[in-house]
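[SOLVED] Need 3D model of a two-part complex

Original post:
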Amino acid sequence: MTRKSGLTAIDGAIALIAILLVVQMWLLTATLESYLAGHPEPILPAAIISAILFAACGGLFLFIRGIDVTARKR
Amino acid sequence: MKRTPSGSEPLWRDEFAIQTGVERYVARRQFSKFLVLTSLGMFIGNLWILVRSWFAEKPSFMPQQIAAASDIGVGEVKLFSYPTREDPCIMIRTAADSFVAYSQKCTHLSCAVYFAKDHNRLECPCHEGYFSVETGSVLQGPPPRPLPRITLKRDGDNLIATGIEL
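Solution:
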């Protein structure tokens, strides 16, 4: 992988993380709204989905780090 | 302090790049780290709500006499406060032996709803949110939820509020 293509891959991963983050923000506000309205039903599924989104973000971060380390070794 | 991957360069070189090409990598890595930490914050927020909901106590409501049935005609309303003085409510006599009561705070932005007799619905004047008189459900407008319903019990001529259904 060249340095330029590495940067492109990282930019793509960052864009994906940003999209996941927007979904997570929406999820948090919707859950809070629901909780304050006295409807606790969606809280557990929302927490599970939020954990999955966080894990996906973490995975993408590890991907970015992998590319970063490879690029540095060159 | 030695660099972790190869052990040949000091650790600070990871964060303070000398070459422009490497700096682009550092900036992107740090930005992605910030995004992932924000994601962790969101997850912790969701977790906090979950823990709060597990340990939240169910509210209990004291029965409270709110009106005499004979004081309210069919199609008339009675305003009262329940369960505290800061919780305005509205009761409507929909038929000779049928009473319904709801919180008077609109679920959109807490404006006071009123009974529109001509249209047989509860209306919020602020943003034209309409609610069904029979169920309190949203008929139109921005309110995200139905009006909380006050459960009523009739004891002779007395109407007693016994709780709130969200």
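Edit: The helical segments of chain A are 3-36, 43-73.
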